## 1
Amino acid sequence: MLKSINHIGIAVKNLDASIETFRKIFSFNEIHRETVESQKVEIASFKVGDLLIELTAATEETSPISKFIEKRGEGIHHIAFETDDVSEELERLSGKGIQLINKSATDGAHDMQIAFLHPKSTFGVLIELCQKKYDYKL
Ligand code: ZN
C-alpha cells in the first residue's frame, strides 16, 4: 500500500544555485546533501512543513537527470510515495500492467529502498516508491 507522499523531486542543473533560490522562498536552515551512486545524482533536501523537497542534479552525463533535463528542461521530476514494502508494491503494480523502470528495489537517498514506475504508463508522472529503513530527521 502507498501511504503518503515522502518527497517531491526537482531536477536542476546547478545544485548550489537552486539551493540559494529555494532558500529565499522557503527560508529553511537545515539541508541534507548526499550523492546517490545508483542514480548518478547529488541531492539536496529540505523540509517545508512535513513535506520533503529533494533538489536533484546529475553527477554524470549518463545520469537519468541529465537525460530528463535535456528532454524536458529543469522542473518537477518525480513524486515519491512511501510504502512499507517496495518489492511487494512492484509485484502488485506490474501484475496490474503498470510498467516499471526498476524491476526490483535499489538504494536511494536517506538509506531508503526505492524504485521508479515508468511514466509511459502513468500519464507522464514519474512515480517513485520508497521504503524507509529508519526515521530520518531530514
Ligand atoms: Zn526521490
## 2
Amino acid sequence: MRPIRKVLVANRGEIACRIIACCQAMGIQTATVFSEADRASRHVLDASEAICIGPAPSRQSYLDIGKVIDAARRSGADAIHPGYGFLSENADFAAACEEAGILFIGPPPAAIRALGSKTAARQLVSTHGVPLVPGVQEPLSSATDGLAIARQIGFPVLIKAAAGGGGKGMRVVRSADEFAPAFERASSEAAASFGNSAVYVEKYLASPRHVEIQVMADSHGNAIYLGERECSVQRRHQKLLEETPSVCVDPEMRRRMGEAALAAVRAAGYTNLGTVEFLVDANREFYFLEVNTRLQVEHPVTEAVTGLDLVREQLHIAAGGRLSLRQEDVAPRGHAIECRILAEDPFDGFVPSPGRIRVYKEPRAPWLRVDTGVYAGYEVSLYYDPLLAKLIAWGPDRPTAVARMQDALRDYVIEGIRTTIPFHLLLLENAEFQAGNLATDFIDRHMEIERSGGSRRHRDVAAIAAAWLRGARGAAPAQAPAATRATSGWKLAALGAGRRPWA
Ligand code: MV4
C-alpha cells in the first residue's frame, strides 16, 4: 500500500465538496482548483488549499490537463481525484497524472481507453459473454448491407452512430422501405455531429429501462458488484431521479446482471469504481450499453443501502488496498431515492435559472442526505452544469422512501432562482411512478410538463391555484409562494388526473 497524504480534487460543485469531506474525515489533506468564476464557491472554502487555474470557461480551467497537473505539483498532492465530468474519463489525463508521479484515483488509462469507445467496449464485452442487443457491432457499409441485416434482426430496428452518444443520431426504422432514407440521414447527421459517419444497426427496444450496476475492483484481482440503480427517469438523456433497488430486478436477475458487469470490467483490466449500464426490455432481458469509468453523480443511493462510503473505497483501492468486503458481504438494505435539484425552471421548458440564492434551507431528518456546493448568497452562474444539490432519502421500503422524499422536497427552500423541486413533487405523486412503472420515455409518456411545454403562465396560475388550495384547506393565509417552494400546479394537475384549472 502507498498511503495517500494529500489529494488534489480536480472538480467543483457538490462532488468536489463531497470528496473533500471524505478526505478530511480520513485525515488526508486536501487541495482543490477553481476558476475565476468560482472564487466564492464552497469547494474553495472547504479545501485546505485552493489554486486558481484560469478563467471561467472550462476549457481554460477545469478541462486544462496541464494546469490541473501543475496545480497538483504546486500543492504537493500525491493523488488527484477527478470527480465526474471534466477530465474524469480522459485517458490522456490519467496517463499524464502517472507520468507526473501523481496517483490518479480511478481506473488505469488502458482500461479507460478500452471502455471509452462505445463500439470498442461492445466488441470487447461481446467476447466475454455479456449480452448485447441483437444486431451487428461493425459499421454498415451501405444502406443495402444495412437493410439485409435489418431483415435478419427483424423490424423495428435502431440505427445508431458508432461515434455517437447521448441519443444523438439514433433513428428508429419500422419497415424495409424506411431503411435507406433513415440510413442516409443517420450517416450524414453522424458525420456532422461526430466527424464520423459510421453507423450500425440493432433491434429497437420499445420503452426500455436504464439500469446500471455499481462495480468495485482492486489491483489484487478482487471485483464485486454493489447492486443496481434504476436511472430511467431522464429528460433529453439527463438523469433527474435515481433509485435503488430497481423494482424490475429480482435477486436472480441481480446476480446475472452483476456477473455480466464483472465480466465486462474484468475483460478490460479495470480497477477502482465503475458503473456498467444496461437496457432492460419489457421481458426483463438486459443488454449491455456502456461502462462509465468514473464515480457517478448518483452514487449516494448505493451508499445509503450498503452503508459504504464509495469515495473512501476509491482512495483505499488507489492506495493499493484490497477490497474491504467480499461479494457475500454485500447486503443492501431498504430503498434509496436521489432527486437532482437543478437550477432550471420546469415550468418553462427546464430553461436554466441562474442568479443569487436569496434563501437556502435544507430539509433535515435521520434518513435524509443533501450533497451540495451552494449556500444562501451563492451566485449560480451559466458557466457550469446546473446541478445545485442532490437530495437523498432512505426508507425500509420504496413507499416509505417516496413519502420521505416528498416531505423533504416540501421542506427544501431555495429562493431567488427556479429549481426542479416542483417537478420532483409532481413526479413522486404520479401514479405510474408510484407503481414503479418506469422507462426511459417515462416523462414523455406520463408527465404533462413536457407535452404542455411547461409555460410560465402555467407556473403562475399553478401558484395561484396552490395558494387557493392552501386557503381552501384553512391553512395560514398563503404568502406569495416562494419561487421554488412546493408550489406545484402540476400537483393539482396530477391530483385532477390531468384537469388543469387554468385550461
Ligand atoms: C437504445 C434504445 C432502444 N433500443 N437502443 C439512448 C442513448 C444511448 N445511451 C442509448 N440509448 C438508447 N438506446 C435500443 N436498441 C433506447 C435508448 C434511449 C435511452 C437509453 C438510456 C437512457 C435514456 C434513453 C432515452 C432515450 C432512448
